[in-house]
Amino acid sequence: MIGRAIDVTVVDFKLSKKFSMRPSRWNRLDRVPVPCHHGGENVSSDWKDLAFHLDFRRSDTDNIAGRNRDDKSRCMDLLEEWLKRNGDRATVEVLMEALSEAELQSTVDGLRDKYPEVTGKSEAPRCILIEGEAGGGKTTFLSKEALDAVSQKTELGRRHDIVLLIRLREVWEGETIEEMVWDQCVSQTTEGIDVQSIRAILQRNESRVLFLLDGYDELRPEAREAGQAIPKLLSSKMYLKSTVVITSRPSAGVQQYTRPDCHVHIMGFSPEHVDKYVRQYFEIVGTAEIAKELITVVRKNPLVTDLLHTPIFLMLVCVLWEDNPEMVSPGTMTDLYSNLLTCLGKKHCKREGVEMPTDGLPADLADALLQIGNLALEALLRGETLLDVSQAENENLNWKLLTARLASVLKNVPGLKVLNLSYTALTPASLQSLVQGFRHIPQLEELDLTWIDKLGDAGMEVLQTGLSSVPHLAVLRLRNVHMTSAGMSLLTPYLRHLAGLRELDLNLNEIGDTGLTSLTTVLPTFIAMQVLDLAATRITHTGMRTLVPALRHLTRLVKLDIGYNNIGDSGLECFSAILPHLTAMEVLVLPDIRISHKGMVALVAGLCKLNGLIKLDISNNDIKDPGLECLAAILPHLTAMKVLILNSTGISDRGISALVKTLPHLVELQELNVSWNNIGDSGIVSLVQTLCQPRKLDLEQNPPREKSLTTATAPRYNTTLQRLDFGWNRGITGAGLGRVAQLIGTPTHLPDTAAMALAEALPRLPALEELELENISMDLAGFQAVVQAAEEHPTLKRLW
């Protein structure tokens, strides 16, 4: 099942397959004599072909040839070197595969007769890792495999009904597997399919699903962290019965999460395929007569021989030879790269009508390339393979030039889906040239202009002209672009073209009630909207009365942020009336919206209907204890809650007492923040004790029948809490600190008895990730006890 067209350029390259087996089934070659002469087939004379299929490069075979006098010795040397390199991976199965690919079938048959228990094939693999250098054809191979699998031309295709090709460079932190499928594999025009139905389909057909994951090395670092979707898929923590094929550059870290059942290395072009490609290239461009001379030069020039195994470099060398043959054979590799860059620069200038100097590149183009090269080098030194221009030194880059060049590049990437220019120094003038290129990328789904504060309303006027060219845009991020109500009014009519908009971020723009009124004229048309961020946009209670009727239509809304606006109790009262209609809501962010406990009374009436709510932030609102008591009364209905933010809300021990009674119902709670309040010793002690003691619900459901409880029936402690923040509560004293062993705020001394109590308490919070003991002094014995307990804790990452 592939919902979108795939651009495929078929490249003929060789693969070397290494099939790993469980140790009990390994057939080590150091215990199997493999003759270099077998039957009527002379393996020795074909040892170079065998070497190629065993992953040896030309430089390796040259070394083997130089240190041996005859082909038989070279063949034996080759096998010994292969054994030494691959260890337990050097199996009879692998050798038989290589012999077969080298067309030495009679030798393969002889080995099968001698060792009938060896089939030459492994069990159906769960995970297949395909590795290769940059430009070696990994993406092309996986795209071809996707098409072949859908057509059931391959064994993988015949074993799977659902084939999902996912580009990992387009995966974001926190994105689920089902959301990736929805985003990358389902056509925008498909009706009746959403994330929930995708999850149901995948779970129902788990053993018939083939995941094709392209480019692990291009996966964002934050999306590689343990607990993210891709690592969980690789480590068999989800969709265990499905098959996963993943491509990556070597040493990118795939094996951190999985031990592949099958390891494939893309070697690139063989010498024969290099010759074949060169002939075909020059036949196509109409200068077949110059192909033979290039082949001769390449064979004699060791500088470029290994480079040409990579398809993309072979193509570039052909382009360079066509332009100027003398530039193909410089003295150093650096000179060759420089010649390639100059050649491509000249072709670019010719196409764009830019005047080209007789020697080198135009100064502005050379300067821009030098800056981009510097950024690329810094990224590589950080171990990153993706270049994020948002990290550039904005003031030093010629963005007008770069955007003009980028606009011309867009002509050649009509399938582009993500364009991230956040934190750059774009101006309305430089944005103008870029927007002109939008007509070439009609499939664009995500545009990020976050924190480009030079755009302003003039930038919005420029942007509006390009929105009609990208009707599939689903994500539009305009955070802090210095837009006012005037810019919002200019932009709004053109947002109508974006019927499939799923995320709109207008955070930190002064659009006010007037701009919001303009926006509400189109909001009801965005029925697919999932994320809406209107924080810090100067909305008042008047604007909320305009917004509420439009929000009623956004029934798929998952996250809403209206924080840091002067909404007040009256504005929140009209908002809470529509909350029961927003049943998909998972994240509600309401910090500093100027509400009191009266506003909370209105809010909880709607909140109790949101059974799927996982995060609620009402920080920096003066709700005091009555407001928290209202909230606590409905928390038993919000059992999916994972994050509850209550800092700076004026609560004291009275409010904490109400909260503590409901905590046993929040079985998924991961983060609780009650910092910067008026909580005292009794409130904090009660809170911590509740989190560390067996849950009341567990005791009710599993009453003790004997004096000692078994593991199966023992009541559980809170095993999900990762962060508890109650710092800067000035009512907490040293006495309270001695009982809970934690304080953030006023400096104090922690006695050994309290430190020991803290060390003993840590194992009761097995999901704890951070412990903050800032401004606290300890004696040596207590300090050593805390440090030892922290070191032995299974999940604690930070102690400070």
From TrEMBL:
<dbReference type="InterPro" id="IPR011029">
    <property type="entry name" value="DEATH-like_dom_sf"/>
</dbReference>
<feature type="domain" description="Death">
    <location>
        <begin position="41"/>
        <end position="115"/>
    </location>
</feature>
<feature type="domain" description="NACHT">
    <location>
        <begin position="126"/>
        <end position="252"/>
    </location>
</feature>
<dbReference type="Pfam" id="PF05729">
    <property type="entry name" value="NACHT"/>
</dbReference>
<dbReference type="InterPro" id="IPR000488">
    <property type="entry name" value="Death_dom"/>
</dbReference>
<dbReference type="InterPro" id="IPR006553">
    <property type="entry name" value="Leu-rich_rpt_Cys-con_subtyp"/>
</dbReference>
<dbReference type="InterPro" id="IPR007111">
    <property type="entry name" value="NACHT_NTPase"/>
</dbReference>
<dbReference type="InterPro" id="IPR032675">
    <property type="entry name" value="LRR_dom_sf"/>
</dbReference>
<dbReference type="GO" id="GO:0005524">
    <property type="term" value="F:ATP binding"/>
</dbReference>
<keyword id="KW-0547">Nucleotide-binding</keyword>
<protein>
    <submittedName>
        <fullName>Nucleotide-binding oligomerization domain-containing protein 2-like</fullName>
    </submittedName>
</protein>
<dbReference type="InterPro" id="IPR001611">
    <property type="entry name" value="Leu-rich_rpt"/>
</dbReference>
<dbReference type="Pfam" id="PF00531">
    <property type="entry name" value="Death"/>
</dbReference>
<dbReference type="InterPro" id="IPR027417">
    <property type="entry name" value="P-loop_NTPase"/>
</dbReference>
<dbReference type="Pfam" id="PF13516">
    <property type="entry name" value="LRR_6"/>
</dbReference>
<dbReference type="GO" id="GO:0007165">
    <property type="term" value="P:signal transduction"/>
</dbReference>
<keyword id="KW-0067">ATP-binding</keyword>
